[in-house]
Amino acid sequence: MTNNVNDLSVRLSQAGIPLNEPTSPAQLQTPWFVRALQAFSGWLAALFLLGFIAMGVVFMVESPAASLGLGLVMIGAAYGLFCKARGDVLEHLALAVSLAGQLLIAWALVEFWNVSTYLWWSLLALQCALALVMPSQVHRTFSAFAASLALYMVLAVNAMAPAAGGLVLLALALLWLNEFRCPGRIQDVQAWGYGLLIGLLMMQGLAHSGHSFAFWFDAQSTNAFAWSAPWLNAVLVALSLALLLYTIPHSKTHWGLYLSPLALLLVSFYAPSVGQGLVVVLLGFAIGHRLVLGLGVLSLLMGIGSYYYWLDATLLTKALTLLVLGGGLLALRWTLLKWLSVAENSPSTSMMLKAKRNRWIIVLTTVVVLVAVNWAIWQKEHHLAEGEIVYLELAPVDPRSLMQGDYMALNFALGNQIQSALHQSERDEDSLKTRNGHVVVRLDEQRIAHFQRLDEGTSLRDDEQRLRYRLRNGQVRFATDAFFFQEGYGERYEPARYGQFRVNTKGEPLLVALYNAELTKLGESVK
């Protein structure tokens, strides 16, 4: 390979093509697995060192002032190690020492102020200072991430948590749009941007899982301006997009382009995470940063998912909202493309026709997907509205699997009776693992179902109903084997005795709600 390169250099020189030879040899990059091993060595050394120190100064933890002083000393020592570090071992050793010092300071602050606003303001100030001072990109990223979570907690204590995502997004846009404004701090700005972006994803992930990062404040946080938090978040998201549009230069921008922040304001109010993810995607595309663009796509998908599984609105309402929002954004895009000025070097006719054809393919595909999804949702809603009401009795289940987070595992007495009937009629055990079928039940005056027989296609009496079941891994299921409810509402469903189903003309059941022994609907708040 070296000979070939030398021969090529000689031939280029003979042809009169000058070559810019590097004055210094290129530095070889350390392979990633070597760096990972060095980082592991640094953390291992830090664990032994911190364990040795903890054995000697464990009594200091009992004193908040001593913990605060020791934490500051350890952060100072970490700063010195960062300044001397020329490899991953010392850098990660310093990072571990710094994290231990931060934990000691946090422990002291908890002793001073308990869990209050002053605690989170102090931690926010600490992380902002470390993000500015520490000479390590990894530490700057972590400090920016921790600062975003501390900001979330500050607002959560004051019942303003929804506005945290908008503030972090605005700071994120300001950083990435001014990435090259200070050439000497480009890497620092990138580290801060990555940390804030990870923090934004953490907030959206918690919203998607249905858990609040400050769950212990939900019942006690009060604020006269708490009602304005969703609107403030929407305004901040729209402001971030307006800043993006203002910063990115255009040859000739039509005034209609600035209508998009107003549309995004409405999107962010009804689906906050969707608006945030959309701005991050546009930010990554505008600055040409693939990692930011990819994380923006992840943020957008998490936002759509968290809104789609939001329990305070019906499935049809959420689907129609997403349909209207998506259609509005597509209409706005089409309008803006009509308004924007044509570039000086216009593409050829064939390229324009190809782009137009591809655009129509995307639009038609999107329309087909939306129509198919919303048709399926409409069928489910029609099923819930028009189906016959049938109550199935719940069978006892293992108490350890009854309540699991935000859903209840379901088992029906009718399913156990179907299994017994199947075992009597079938000798092949493999056929009892996976199959579909129908069962005939008798409905009493309260429309509670009682097992009659397995369906053989015979005619039904007036008080009989045909139900479709599925047999999966030897377990009989009717529509679902779990009932989902809002986080923290588990006690309301503990008296559940019956499941109410809506059954269509094909015998397909759809679970609606759970009822107690007196057939009173559970889950509704007592007024």
Overview of the structural elements:
By secondary structure, the protein is α+β, with helices and mostly antiparallel strands. Among the domains are: 35-215 and 226-244 and 273-305, no CATH class; 388-515, no CATH class. The chain is built from 16 helices and ten strands. It has helices spanning 2-14, 32-57, 64-84, 88-113, 117-133, 137-157, 162-177, 186-209, 229-247, 260-270, 272-287, 290-308, 315-339, 349-386, 399-402, 413-425; strands at 388-393, 403-404, 407-409, 434-443, 449-454, 464-472, 475-477, 482-484, 498-503, 509-515. Strands 5-4-6-7 form a four-stranded antiparallel beta sheet. A three-stranded antiparallel beta sheet has the order 1-9-10. Strand 4 and strand 5 form a beta hairpin. Helix 4 (88-113) runs antiparallel to helix 5 and helix 9 runs antiparallel to helix 10.
* Structural Rg: 31 Å
Number of strands: 10
User: What overall form do the CA principal axes indicate?
Assistant: extended
Arithmetic mean of pLDDT:
76
How are the elements arranged and paired?
Elements: H1 2-14, H2 32-57, H3 64-84, H4 88-113, H5 117-133, H6 137-157, H7 162-177, H8 186-209, H9 229-247, H10 260-270, H11 272-287, H12 290-308, H13 315-339, H14 349-386, E1 388-393, H15 399-402, E2 403-404, E3 407-409, H16 413-425, E4 434-443, E5 449-454, E6 464-472, E7 475-477, E8 482-484, E9 498-503, E10 509-515
Antiparallel strand pairs: 1-9, 2-3, 3-8, 4-5, 4-6, 6-7, 9-10
Helix pairs in contact: 2-4, 3-4, 4-5, 5-6, 6-7, 6-8, 7-8, 7-9, 7-11, 8-12, 9-10, 9-11, 10-11, 10-13, 11-12, 13-14
